[in-house]
Design the sequence.
């Protein structure tokens, strides 16, 4: 799944990072949490394109992390609206945007246990643009109803909520999320995939416009920025990812030729 | 005032059944001390992680030291799911109090302030609430129709972490790892392992003083060189990826995990 087809000059990770970088848009501060190498690539790409803005805080990084008051500072910032974009995933994600990072089956003796909710039980409510991200697009991951709600996609009107999901990016497509209707809408189909396949592989109902287009491929300049400028920075936090996708080791330039 | 003590002696305050609070992987985890606790066969710990954990929780759980785990997540990051945590959960042998990161910070901040609870946004509508009867939703008394969740304070018996250096008065330099200060402020006792002793007064130099935890929070300091190994110590050394990969391989089965403990914990072959 990681090798680029011969006719395509980019790999799946590069396409997804490019899609997410476009979704980030013109904002001031993007934070990236645990186990999110592709969102981290996207955030650093957005920063390179913006000449140093937005601020990007990779929460596991020493270098790409502005916080000087510990973890409390991130959550205090988010509570005030000082974090514009965050990324969340889920072992399961359902059609109402609910995410499950805890378990499948009974809570006390589950059949599958995921790591845990991380910051989702708070950040999903208070970060204006939460981009959901799950590479594996299947009926196993995109389900009609999650087994455990780590954080709900939407809240009743009387519950304080300044944030929530805006999109869901997978290895097959990008969805947008309509908060008023509490539903996903197919936004674009990645090259090499089809609407029929996406319907077949998605466990929840979603809006499917008749004129849905193909996800734009990353252009040569985007690929060059990602490989030459972003990849070396990633290696500090995601050494295994940086080596696998970009062929670089920590502190060394990319060995992969920029041929796009 | 903290005494500089041998490691096993410094850890004596961590008794069976104690509420032990520890930091996340990138803040400075006292791994050499963790191995010492496993050698001592500490039992029934109520382990609170600020706010997540990786190898430390997985080792303690696998070694049978933990009765209750209060965490926002346990994961080996790029190496994958934490094997002994996952096995204990699916076997139903570990009690968990699942949280979300800011809830653990907020509950410790309540303890720092000496107040009984802290309000937190979010959480309403999450199934986390269904499993935490002590988390209560109230109406904001200063507004109409604004529900908000209250979290009772978490007051650890002991906080345990690793830092770059301490001086002989027990002042500990933590740099920008302010989570370590949150732990020490909240806990009844704090035990710190350090890479080195600093000759002189950490509070005398203003550039060091700003990143220094005053000794009056600290009950014991032990020197443990490379004491976070195989986890990283910020600005000092990175994680030992080869060792963590080896751990993942061995800890995939109970037998392999037992051999790991034998080779790297009981045989004191660490670092």
Sequence:
């Amino acid at each position: 799944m990681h090798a680029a087809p011969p006719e395509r000059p980019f790999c799946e990770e590069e396409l997804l990072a490019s899609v997410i970088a476009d979704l980030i848009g013109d904002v001031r501060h993007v934070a990236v949490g645990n186990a999110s190498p592709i969102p981290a690539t996207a955030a650093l790409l957005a920063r390179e394109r913006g000449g140093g803005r937005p601020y990007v805080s990779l929460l596991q990084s020493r270098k790409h992390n502005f916080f000087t008051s510990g973890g409390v500072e991130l959550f205090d910032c988010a509570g005030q609206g000082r974090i514009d974009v965050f990324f969340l995933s889920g072992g399961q994600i359902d059609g109402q945007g609910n995410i499950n990072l805890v378990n499948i089956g009974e809570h006390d003796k589950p059949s599958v246990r995921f790591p845990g909710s991380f910051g989702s039980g708070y950040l999903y409510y208070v970060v204006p643009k939460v981009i959901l991200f799950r590479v594996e697009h299947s009926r196993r991951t995109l389900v009609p109803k999650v087994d455990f709600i780590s954080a709900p996609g939407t809240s009743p009107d009387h519950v304080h909520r300044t944030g929530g999901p805006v999109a869901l990016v997978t290895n097959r497509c990008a969805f947008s999320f309509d908060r008023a209707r509490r539903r996903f809408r197919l936004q674009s189909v990645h090259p090499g995939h089809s609407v029929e396949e996406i319907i077949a592989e998605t466990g929840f109902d979603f809006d499917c416009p008749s004129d849905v287009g193909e996800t734009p491929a990353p252009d040569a300049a985007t690929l060059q920025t990602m490989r030459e400028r972003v990849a070396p920075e990633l290696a500090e936090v995601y050494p295994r990812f940086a080596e696998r996708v970009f062929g670089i080791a920590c502190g060394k330039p990319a060995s992969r030729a920029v041929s796009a | 005032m903290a005494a500089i003590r041998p490691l096993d002696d410094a850890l004596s305050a961590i008794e069976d059944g104690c509420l032990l609070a520890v930091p996340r992987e990138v803040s400075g985890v006292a791994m050499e001390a963790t191995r010492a606790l496993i050698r001592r066969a500490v039992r029934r710990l109520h382990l609170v992680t600020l706010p997540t954990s990786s190898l430390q929780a997985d080792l303690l759980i696998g070694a049978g030291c933990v009765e209750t785990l209060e965490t926002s997540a346990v994961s080996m990051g790029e190496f994958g799911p934490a094997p002994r945590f996952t096995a204990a959960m699916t076997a139903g042998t570990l009690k968990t109090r699942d949280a979300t990161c800011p809830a653990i910070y907020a509950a410790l901040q309540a303890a720092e302030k000496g107040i009984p609870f802290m309000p937190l946004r979010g959480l309403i509508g999450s199934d986390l609430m269904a499993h935490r009867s002590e988390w209560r939703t109230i109406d904001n008394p200063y507004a109409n129709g604004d529900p908000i969740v209250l979290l009772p304070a978490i007051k650890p018996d002991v906080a345990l972490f690793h830092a770059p250096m301490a001086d002989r008065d027990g002042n500990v330099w933590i740099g920008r790892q302010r989570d370590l200060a949150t732990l020490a402020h909240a806990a009844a006792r704090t035990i710190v392992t350090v890479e080195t002793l600093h000759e002189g007064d950490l509070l005398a130099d203003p550039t060091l003083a700003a990143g220094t935890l005053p000794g009056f929070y600290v009950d014991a300091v032990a020197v443990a060189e490379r004491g976070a190994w195989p986890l990283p110590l910020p600005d000092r050394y990175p994680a030992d990826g080869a060792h963590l990969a080896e751990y993942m391989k061995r800890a995939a089965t109970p037998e392999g995990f037992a051999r790991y403990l034998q080779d790297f914990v009981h045989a004191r072959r660490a670092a």
Remarks:
- The two ends of chain A are 19 Å apart (CA to CA).
- The first strand of chain A starts at residue 29 and ends at 32.
- Chain A has a mean pLDDT of 92.
